[in-house]
Amino acid sequence: MGGIEFLEETYRGARFVLSRGRRIGAAAPVVVKAVRDDIPDGDDAAARLQREYRLLNELDIAGVVRALGLEMQGTRPL
What's the rounded Cα separation, in Å, for the pair 15 and 28? Predict the structure, then answer.
């Protein structure tokens, strides 16, 4: 993923991986949620992540995590 320095994997679930990192240049902390590499493309995990991104962008509530972007790595959203 361009512009992100990955520091550590913080969680590995059945379908998703969370990693802590920071934006290169700005040094702003970020958390990246991605579909696990071993999940087949036909699984609905990618669609779930896309829906989660869309819903987070519609919320404007103090204390709720902001989604900064949805990027694709091949056919998988990050």
Answer: 26
pLDDT of residue 18: 94
Give, in order, the Cα–Cα distances in Å from 11 to each of 16, 20, 22, 62, 68.
8, 9, 17, 24, 19
**How far is the CA of 18 from the CAs of 1, 10, 49, in angstroms?**
14, 6, 12
CA 11, CA 17: separation in Å to the nearest integer? 6
Cα 17 to the center of its chain, rounded Å: 8
Proportion of the chain above pLDDT 90, given as a percent: 29
List, in order, residues 6 or more apart from 32 with CB less than 8 Å away: 1, 4, 6, 18, 19, 21, 78
Record the pTM.
0.79
Helices and strands (H and E) in the chain: how many = 1, 5
